[in-house]
Amino acid sequence: MTKQPSATVPGAILCAAGTLELNANRTQKELTVANRGDRPIQIGSHFHFFEVNRALQFDRPTAYGFRLDIPAGTAVRFEPGDTKTVNLVAMAGDRTVRGLNNLVNGALDDADVRANAMEQLQTLGFSDQG
Q1: Closest CA to 88 of 29, 41, 44
Q2: Taking a C-beta distance cutoff of 8 angstroms, is the pair 66, 49 a contact?
Q3: Which residue among 49, 74, 81, 114 is buried most deeply as judged by most CB within 10 Å?
Q4: Is residue 10 included in any domain, yes or no?
Q5: Is 60 a domain residue?
Q6: Average pLDDT estimate for 45-72
Q7: Euclidean distance between CA atoms 79 and 66, whole angstroms
């Protein structure tokens, strides 16, 4: 007697019927971003966009609390001299950001943390057109 393979094998991905909408009901924004540097810059899907490489020029205060609206594990690449429009989505979870370029290091919704982050933009020389 030949054993029939199981419909469920280890590692199988089982998808529910219907359509899955990514980042549903989250605030979204569109920003124009220019790479003023001399090297390519790549930004991953879950990086706090406000804190990306200082050679990228855009309205940083508008990007505070947002990340790229792209699938997890993907990235957007900016070549030197490139200007492109990106879609951002509000960060979720406990909305705490630590590390990265050390501009925030705290709760995104804390007014003191936000004020300090805006001050750090200028102190550390991040490009900003906002």
Answers
A1: 29
A2: yes
A3: 49
A4: no
A5: yes
A6: 96
A7: 22
Q: Name the residue with tokens 């750090």.
A: 120
pLDDT tens figures, 82-104: 999 999 999 999 999 999 999 99
Give the number of domains in the chain. 1
CATH of the domain at 97: 2.10.150.10
In the chain the first and final C-alpha atoms are separated, in Å, by 72
Among 65, 73, 70, residue whose Cα is nearest residue 103:
65
Whether the pTM exceeds 0.70: the reply is: yes
d(CA 113, CA 105): 8
Asked if residue 118 is part of any domain, the answer here is: yes
Q: Which candidate, 111, 110, 56, places its Cα nearest to that of 83?
A: 56
Number of H helices, E strands in the chain: 2, 8
Instruction: Identify the domain containing residue 100 by its residue range.
Output: 28-123
